[in-house]
């Protein structure tokens, strides 16, 4: 079992997004059932923070994941989380900028690793996490001084918020191929299959870095992750989408559930004093179309980095030019001119159109328009995921120039996704709920996305010791 001084600090940055997303979605539910939204928002803690004025097209939200243990009340919680004295009170182990553009339904979440080496104004060179020791203003000032990023709003959340939201929902179903445990976080799954996790076990699951699977025939435990951090990220992404999807469904269908989830999400939230009801509605517009099976709803990234040494410490240094390319995206709000790129004649491009918008007949109507623009008819259909938010253009390896040509006809901008399984057409246009129309491009050019990782093309790392674990448990609904 974990000792009280075990180095289990901070929950990963995707949990912070889960809280922000779920909070926003629950406000939608409250408005939908005409509950008293003003009284709900009044419980949010406010702090005076020097933030920049937001542009009309969106905003950058600085999200801080605080690892305060002030909620620890008994020996079980102390064993899993430690106490405030063990970990030195509150610190920021999670720092992320969420770039929200409600009009385009494009949301980018960029994590800034805690060990990035920066110049903290008035303090000197140190790891970026140290900036939070002097409060949110110093953190915002550091991001501006080192990366030129304007922060328009500030949000801080903690462990208790996450656990409370899951408990308000009831549980979140997760598939385990084998019995599982993590002795450091307290996770314990006695049998493989579809398991419903409550708040305590959900937090133990997403924080797990030492997950083990059990072979019932040999009575031995084996490490589950070939690459622990990569596998943990995959688990977190899956859990986040499930959490947000269930919260929306239950909250919108049941006013009492929406009320309870909102209470849990808001009571442990801290925001800047200037965050208004209108700003919260902007977040709602950005997040309200989230589907737990849609990997395009939120684009998670980590600032590209490489290892280094400074003043005898192991630190992280931004990897160039990839880091600058990603930072540039945090500075753009729908008005950046796209760089030129090679395109091809539409008459050489066979396009299949899939509907994931819930609008009947949209795929057929869109394909007819594409044919008028000169594209070849590749047929229509419905996307297996049901509904997605951001429109996608899927393309086979080697067909990127054809995908980019189609890209310039889609309004608002779509997301390019490489798909080696694509058959029968050069590209697939998957219409999301944010799709508006096709346009005749003035210039057939699209932004280059060098240096980033597309979530839809990520492949989770394999299970370690899979050959030693035997056949996995049957995967059943709702997992």
Concise structural overview:
The protein is an alpha/beta fold.
Description:
The chain has 479 residues and is an alpha/beta fold. It has three domains: 13-166 and 229-331, 3-Layer(aba) Sandwich (Aminopeptidase), CATH 3.40.630.190; 170-227 and 461-468, no CATH class; 346-446, Alpha-Beta Plaits, CATH 3.30.70. 30% of the residues lie in helices and 24% in strands. The protein is built from 13 helices and 24 strands. Helix 1 runs parallel beside helix 8. The model is unreliable at 1-17, 25-35, 83-91, 336-341 and 443-461 (pLDDT under 50).
The counted number of beta strands is 24
Radius of gyration: 23 Å
Residue stretches low in confidence (pLDDT < 50, at least 5 long) are 1-17, 25-35, 83-91, 336-341, 443-461
Give the number of helices.
13
What's the pLDDT, averaged over the residues? Answer: 76
CATH superfamily of the largest domain: LCP protein
Q: How many strands, what sense, and barrel or not for the largest sheet?
A: 7 strands, mixed
**Percent of residues in beta strands:** 15-25%
Large-scale geometry: globular
Number of self-contained structural domains: 3
Instruction: Give the assembly state of these chains.
Output: single chain
* CATH architecture type of the largest domain: 3-Layer(aba) Sandwich
Structural class: alpha/beta
Level of helix content?
25-40%
